[in-house]
Amino acid sequence: MSTSTQYHRRDLSMDHHIALRSAATRLTEHFTGIFGTETIERFLHTSYEQFAGKATVPNFLPLLAERFAKQRLIALARVEGHHHDGKPTVLFLCTHNAGRSQMALGYFQHLAGEHATAWSGGSEPGTEVNPAAIDAMAEIGIDITTEYPKPWTDEIVQAADVIITMGCGDACPIFPGRRYEEWTLDDPAGLTVDDIRPIRDDIERRVRALLAELEVPAEG
């Protein structure tokens, strides 16, 4: 089934319809020789559906779907052996993917640079990243404003070498052959920036220790 048929059936706006067709074209070009059009369209479609019911800014839906579909396809390529860059991949998981896991992701990407890959996800993704967490990270020069709450998927979990969980409990996915580590951290939901700073600083210490264990040089 083509992208145009899939999305026409859901009575999307013409702008979303056009944007998703363009996204499918870009993803097809990016994954040429790795995945076929049907796989790419399916991932784009299911990624769109993940956000369609709770997007606070509907105009961003096609962009979010494209970004998430690309991440998932990169993960699938890794799982299926199409992608071998030798970089360790870490997945940060919490409940809403709005605070702890986003701050950890921000720190990891800032410190590891191009030497490692990191993703994040939530068991019950929220609608936006915690504004106070954004402000707390901005204080130390890390911008997480472009991030967004998202779920995890099987291919993303399977593609990770290390899975860091932060309070998602039994909802956290378990796959054999992966390293799991639980970080016990207070949930920053509803807290002020003053209250979040100690959590932020604890996350930094943990991320730096993890990078050292992975033998990834910290840039900051």
Please characterize this protein's 3D structure:
By secondary structure, this protein is α/β, with parallel strands linked by helices. It has 2 domains: 3-79, Helicase, Ruva Protein, domain 3 (Orthogonal Bundle), CATH 1.10.8; 89-213, Rossmann fold (3-Layer(aba) Sandwich). The chain is built from 8 helices and 4 strands, in the order ααααβαβααββα. The chain has a 4-stranded parallel sheet. α5 links the parallel β1 (89-94) and β2 (117-122). α5 packs across α8. It is globular and about 45 Å long. The termini are far apart. This is Arsenate reductase ArsC. InterPro entries: Phosphatase-like_N, Ptyr_pPase, Ptyr_pPase_sf. It comes from Lolliginicoccus lacisalsi.
Topology:
Blueprint: H1 3-8, H2 14-30, H3 37-52, H4 61-79, E1 89-94, H5 100-112, E2 117-122, H6 131-139, H7 154-159, E3 162-166, E4 179-182, H8 193-213
Parallel strand pairs: 1-2, 1-3, 3-4
Could you give a quick summary of the protein structure above?
The protein is built from 8 helices and 4 strands, in the order ααααβαβααββα. It has 220 residues and is α/β, with parallel strands linked by helices. The chain folds into 2 domains: 3-79, Corynebacterium glutamicum thioredoxin-dependent arsenate reductase, N-terminal domain (Helicase, Ruva Protein, domain 3), CATH 1.10.8.1060; 89-213, Rossmann fold (3-Layer(aba) Sandwich), CATH 3.40.50.2300.
